[in-house]
Write a structure and sequence with these properties.
88 residues, alpha+beta, Double Stranded RNA Binding Domain, 4-stranded antiparallel sheet, 2 helices, 25% helix, globular
Length: 88
C-alpha cells in the first residue's frame, strides 16, 4: 500500500533546505537545492518507515494538507507531498 505524507520544506539561514514531516517526529532531512527536496524527502521517509515497521510499530495515518498547514510554523515553509510504500 502507498501512503502520501506531507513534508514541509524550510530555507535555512545557510541557504540549504530543511525537510520535516510533521506527522513523523524525528523524520527530517536536508537538501542542498530545492529541486532535490522531493528525492531527499522520499529517501528519508522510506528509511524512517522501514525503521518503525522493523521495530513493530504501526505507521501513523497521514494528516491532510489542510491539517498540517494549520500549524503557524508550517506556514513559513512550502508543503510537498511524498509517497511511500508501507506494510499493512
Amino acid at each position: 500500500m502507498r501512503r502520501e505524507f506531507i513534508a514541509v520544506v524550510f530555507r535555512t539561514s545557510e541557504g540549504a533546505f530543511a525537510i520535516e514531516f510533521p506527522d513523523l517526529i524525528g523524520c527530517v532531512a536536508s537538501a542542498a537545492t530545492y529541486s532535490s527536496c522531493p528525492d531527499v524527502a522520499a529517501r528519508a521517509l522510506t528509511a524512517y518507515l522501514a525503521a518503525i515497521e522493523g521495530e513493530g510499530y504501526a505507521v501513523p495515518k497521514p494528516s491532510s494538507l489542510e491539517s498540517v498547514m494549520t500549524n503557524p510554523r508550517n506556514l513559513e515553509g512550502v508543503p510537498i507531498a511524498v509517497l511511500a510504500a508501507v506494510r499493512v
